[in-house]
């Protein structure tokens, strides 16, 4: 009896989807399992799956996650066009971030007027705090001092984001969430949601990028040496590297670009949703469809990069090594109206950490351990697998 009910349900869902799919002229895409869609294709190794889907179906393809419709965009022009269109500024209510954002509040998960106000409010107040100014650089340098002084605090600061989840009581994370639960006033809730968003969006992304940076340079001692040689020549060893040195350190800047390209932490960005039934790039897009940017696949497209698997900062340098060649195909922070709010902070932070760490230390892989590789550990973000390194203070 139960098996008959299941069979009827599966047939009904399949028929519903077939008829519904025929109603729309949707982009091409892989066939899915009724009720589950393509969840098994993309869930385990999304970076591999989305690269293969882009290869097979092109720069715009359609798939489903359960019963949710999704469209993935695989070139910069399509992503720009879509993410600059107010119709695609929505967020999915199912989003994980809603848990942190106390419902659809804050910045990441909110939409419509609330999103406009919260984003504007946050940017204005972060600027008062020194966001994008010298004050922020001073704060980053203070953090760096703690980190670069070989100490437990430094090691803990790298681990901090994961500690929140591993020890929620000890780190105060549960306390923070309990405070949020006590407030029902909209203003306070929104403020807590914004703080939670900045913490959630900023901490783990930055620390994972830094973990990738150290790994790439430990695996590639020749690149590490070129970075150090330029820092020694331009800044020397008697003072720290600052943001004012940036334009004189093209190799560091190119290395940063390559770190963002190669790590591609946020495989398909954060999904946007379509606010109404509409058409895009010649296809129908039903209301509620998730619109995603195929960031990892663009960053690893052999047609764009030739050797995407290699870590090679020189791809972003002129032949004489003096000028940085920026590429619009590097888009770790996404594009359009919802582009990462912390982009400048993250760029400054990683630049300062990268240059100051390698000014003072040489880092190599531990020869007694299995050789680490570039294969990521898949979670909400792509992290490097655990690795062991040897850190030596430079003479
Ligand atoms: C390497 C570090 C980072 C990466 C790779 C990154 C990447 C991203 C991406 C791909 C998005 C989605 C944009 C979209 O919806 O199209 C995003 C959104 C966001 N990021 Fe970042 N991010 C980083 C660091 C930060 C930092 C340091 C902060 C805050 C201090 C931050 C705050 C935010 C916020 C608030 C949003 C939501 C924007 C909105 O919905 O309007 N991020 N980030």
From TrEMBL:
GO molecular function, a single term: oxidoreductase activity, acting on paired donors, with incorporation or reduction of molecular oxygen
PROSITE patterns, A to Z: CYTOCHROME_P450
Keywords associated with the record: Heme, Iron, Metal-binding, Monooxygenase, Oxidoreductase
Top-level taxon: Eukaryota
KW Ion transport (keyword) present: no
Sections of the chain in a coiled coil: none
Entry-linked InterPro entries: Cyt_P450, Cyt_P450_CS, Cytochrome_P450_fam2
UniProt KW Metal-binding keyword: yes
Pfam families (UniProt xref): p450
Record family assignment: Belongs to the cytochrome P450 family.
PANTHER family: CYTOCHROME P450 508A4-RELATED, CYTOCHROME P450 508B1-RELATED
Protein name as it appears in the record: Cytochrome P450
Organism: Allacma fusca
